[in-house]
TrEMBL record:
Native species: Duganella fentianensis
UniProt entry keywords in alphabetical sequence: ATP-binding, Glutathione biosynthesis, Ligase, Nucleotide-binding
Reactions it catalyzes: L-cysteine + L-glutamate + ATP = gamma-L-glutamyl-L-cysteine + ADP + phosphate + H(+)
PANTHER family xrefs: GLUTAMATE--CYSTEINE LIGASE (PTHR38761)
Enzyme Commission number, as recorded: 6.3.2.2
The protein, known as: Glutamate--cysteine ligase
Domain Glutamate--cysteine ligase as annotated: residue spans: 12-380
GO cellular component: cytosol
Similarity section: Belongs to the glutamate--cysteine ligase type 1 family. Type 1 subfamily.
């Protein structure tokens, strides 16, 4: 354990500081709507769920059938997951015979032209979101817009950063905002060092349906007529088969300071990319992408973790970061757990809280380009071969087995879990840590291994297993219908969201071409791009 971590744990162990270990947790869960045969639904977003454009908790992501459930931010992950469960139960009450797909990798997909891109109505904002997704389809293919994941939004009490700032005088004076941003960037750097561990412990997509690849070259093995896999993979979703392309391959905004991160994204949303320029922004007078730049907007950058700030109306994410600093982080690498009805377990949430607090409190030096390549390689090796016996990862000072390094990290996290348990007066975080230690000792306990074992019970068919799990989860939610208060709450949200969208569409507005031009012009962010 580093001196930095030891010192900070001792400071936070003082009873008067326990309250600072709080913060907020939010979940965004993506899930495809499918029919009762497990095929992608052909229906539009259900009107009974409200407006996908303006509903605060139920929307769509890329494809029209890819639902996204967004919880309010809560002080405890148990409360967050209870809210997520409530959203699922309400959604099922409005879905008829449709199911929510239980996997990260998609169900049986139709031809490319028959996958509908998410639609948000005719307002300028709605059309901007839709055209952005047209651009994604052009750049990545529509099948990629059907991949689902769990996004974990995490913040710590701002008082914790003030306490640390006061106890650790910096070499140069920092404002509270700057210290907090630097601290979250340091958390992200440690996340990059160690996130391979999350892929081993929680990766749950070692197989996929053959049709997903659309004829793309690959090195997967055949499990059955309809299923491809890698025998030791943990998360094919997070491999090079996922949401990546050549344009982003050279884009690596490093997280050594906020200025540098913002500068890299600002450049990417303003720098033309020749293959996209050859396509243009319009075809036959219709918008096909928002720009011909490396990124249409900054959210197109596909990262395992992002620094975030709640944006204001009309504001872009990089503007928010520039003007007000980092407010929370968004973990984006978690697969949907097909054995959990809501896609994530409480134990996983407790471990994530421990892991992220460890990343926040541990010493975090700047990452050199060479180190960045090493972290990327460790992650890539784990998602494709994480359960291979004796798999070696590069720790920098030596190559070590994944199991040995993983157990060392869990030992370093143990006092962090104990600190969280002391605050709550229980042992749930330590228990979550012990459950992960068992997975390191026995790879058969990992979700990816359990998925492959379950596939064998379903004729080695990804489609059959996915459908069976989706039906099992549907039975659970349908047997736990919302109560009257829950119905009233979500019905009100749905009605209000539809009214808000209707008002937006009825209001006077500028031409869409002018709206896009104004939006693109708003991404300028003054940043030195330098880190001290």
């Amino acid at each position: 354990m580093s001196p930095t971590l030891t010192r900070r744990l001792a400071l936070l162990a003082q009873p008067e500081h326990h309250a600072l270990l709080g913060g907020l947790r939010g979940i965004e869960r993506e899930t495809l709507r499918v029919d009762d045969h497990g095929h992608l639904a052909s229906t539009p977003h259900p009107l009974a769920l409200g407006s996908a454009l303006t509903h605060p908790q139920i929307t769509t992501d890329y494809a029209e059938t890819l639902l996204e459930f967004i919880t309010p931010a809560e002080a405890d992950i148990a409360s967050t997951l209870a809210k997520l469960d409530g959203i699922h139960r309400y959604a099922y009450s409005k879905l008829g015979q449709e199911l929510l797909w239980s996997q990260s990798m998609p169900a049986t997909l139709p031809a490319e032209q028959d996958i509908a891109i998410a639609w948000y109505g005719t307002s300028n904002m709605g059309m901007l979101k839709h055209v952005y997704r047209r651009g994604l389809a052009l750049r990545y293919g529509k099948a990629m817009q059907c991949i689902a994941g769990i996004h974990y939004n995490y913040s710590l009490d701002e008082g914790l950063w003030r306490l640390l700032a006061a106890s650790e005088p910096a070499a140069r004076p920092l404002t509270t905002k700057a210290y907090q941003s630097d601290a979250y960037l340091a958390t992200i750097r440690n996340f990059r060092r160690y996130s391979w561990l999350l892929m081993y412990l929680f990766g749950a997509s070692p197989a996929l349906q053959t049709g997903f690849l659309r004829g793309r070259p690959h090195q997967l093995e055949t499990l059955s007529d309809d299923t491809l896999y890698l025998p030791y993979a943990t998360s094919l979703r997070m491999s090079d088969l996922g949401y990546q392309n050549d344009a982003q391959s050279g884009l690596s905004p490093h997280e050594n300071c906020l200025d540098s991160y913002v500068a890299a994204l600002t450049k990417a949303v303003n720098q033309p990319y020749a293959p996209y320029a050859a396509l243009g922004t319009k075809r036959d007078g219709e918008w096909i992408q928002l720009s011909t730049n490396v990124l249409q907007i900054e959210n197109e950058y596909y990262a395992t973790i992002r620094p975030k700030r709640v944006i204001q109306t009309g504001e872009r994410p990089i503007q928010a970061l520039c003007s007000r600093g980092v407010q929370y982080i968004e973990v984006r690498c978690m697969d949907v757990d097909p054995f959990e009805p809501i896609g994530i377990s409480l134990t996983a949430g407790r471990f994530l809280d421990t892991f992220l607090l460890f990343c926040a409190l541990e010493h975090s030096a700047a990452i050199t380009p060479e180190e960045g390549l090493r972290h990327t390689a460790n992650f890539a090796r784990t998602v494709k071969e994480g359960r291979r016996p004796g798999l070696l990862l590069d720790r920098g000072d030596a190559e070590v087995t994944l199991q040995e390094w993983g157990q060392q990290l869990l030992a370093q996290m143990a006092p962090v879990a104990a600190l969280l348990d002391a605050r709550h007066g229980d042992s749930v975080h330590s228990a979550a840590l012990a459950e992960q230690a068992a997975k390191l000792a026995d790879p058969a306990l990992t979700p990816s291994a359990k998925v492959l074992a379950a596939l064998r019970e379903h004729g080695n068919s990804f489609a059959a297993f996915g459908l069976a799990q989706s039906q099992r989860h549907a039975e659970y939610f349908r047997s736990h219908a919302p109560n009257a208060d829950e119905y009233a709450y979500f019905d009100q949200l749905a009605t209000a969201s539809l009214d808000e969208q209707a008002a937006m569409e009825a209001a006077p507005r500028i031409a869409f071409d002018d709206y896009v031009a104004a939006y693109r012009a708003s991404n300028l962010c003054h940043s030195s791009g330098e880190c001290d």
